[in-house]
Amino acid sequence: MNLNWMALAVPFFLFFMGLEYLVAKWQKKDYFRFNNSVANLNVGIAERLLDTFTVGLFYFFYEYIHRHYALFDLQPGVLGWVALFLATDFVWYWYHRLAHEINLFWSAHVVHHQSEDFNYTVSARITVFQALIRTGFWSILPLIGFPAEMITTLLILHGLYPFFIHTRTIGKLGWLEYILVTPSHHRVHHASNPEYLDKNYGDVLIIWDKLFGTFVEEKEEAVELVYGLTKPLESHSFLWQQFHFMMELFETVRRTPGFIPKIKVLFGRPDDIDPEIRDQLEKRFLSRSSVHATSRRFRGYVLGQLIGILTILFVFLLLEKQVSVYHQTLIALFILITLVNCGALLEQRQWVFYLEITRACFLILMAFPYLTNPLSVSLLLIITLLLWVYFSNLQNRYLRLVYGTVPAK
């Protein structure tokens, strides 16, 4: 059986998240909040799922550039790998810095900075939009002459290190602070305290920040670090987290007269976007719920969905080459709908019941090729009819069971 062993990354990272949680409890620190952790993992699940469909495209993109436009023909070797590592880390620094300084790039990267916690689950806050933009930056590597095989291999290893610097359980690391990006350095980067804004962009090496004047040391005696956006998002909606700044940017461009000024907005700084625009968009697209369910039953239900899609994702990735395109498509849509569903649950939305029905429909479509017995089809039709007749009653029962009451729409 041809298995995709990269799927083991899922339990690998989950293990260290669990370990960090236990260490934080041992240290008597409250570094994990339920809603934040679920929202963080939801973003990461979506990225890992969609990465399945894009990673091959990225590889062929690098290969095409290398084959047709490479300036040099660099071969694997000690010096070649060292040069590629330094080039990758250097390009990352500038991608990351510009992702904070240019609205168009920030609209994708902002998702990574929304969490008001700082732990290993935050490292999962990567979107497919970020991956697309980063690929554009890394296209310089095959143009220089590095083969696609080397680039892909190094990017996997290079992407592993940043996971371990998203933590508050590890203090300063002595002489390593002068060379590497450490948890201390990266805490500064994620902090929204004024003195720490737009600092420490490095991924593995901190030398780039020191060379280009963006390094700031974490001051242990200073005020406590505050994480998240300077204007907190205050929402766990999966869709709102992904698209809120894109909508803010689009609305700003729409209101700006003239073609050249519109382009300047796209490539301007995030600080120049009027914060009132988000408030206006929230009133239109993000109504708040008056219900705030926190019961063990509610958390257990959300956690059950999260564990379920993590399990499905792992099995899907492991057996991806044995799964038909039909089932790949349905499984991907099922996982994405479940992520939206989890966000809607955390937001206590009433329309979450419609998502539950949609998820059930996807399960039926997955099983449909195997429903060859007429009795099975008849039973399915009867269940559908009963659902239609008793829909309102079932919806209210579901909402009371999950939330304890029926929230406003």
TrEMBL record:
The EC number(s) given in the record are 1.-.-.-
Please classify the protein's predominant subcellular localization into one broad category: membrane
**Which enzyme class, named as a word?**
oxidoreductase
Question: What are the TM regions of this chain, as residue ranges?
Answer: 77-95, 137-164, 298-319, 325-346, 353-371, 377-394
Provide this UniProt record's keywords sorted from A to Z.
Lipid metabolism, Membrane, Oxidoreductase, Transmembrane, Transmembrane helix
What does the record give under GO molecular function?
oxidoreductase activity
Domain Fatty acid hydroxylase positions: 81-214
Q: Which Pfam families match?
A: FA_hydroxylase
Classify the protein's membrane topology as the record does.
Multi-pass membrane protein
- State what protein this is by name: Sterol desaturase family protein
Question: What is the organism of origin for this protein?
Answer: Larkinella bovis
Q: What is the lineage of its organism?
A: Bacteria, Pseudomonadati, Bacteroidota, Cytophagia, Cytophagales
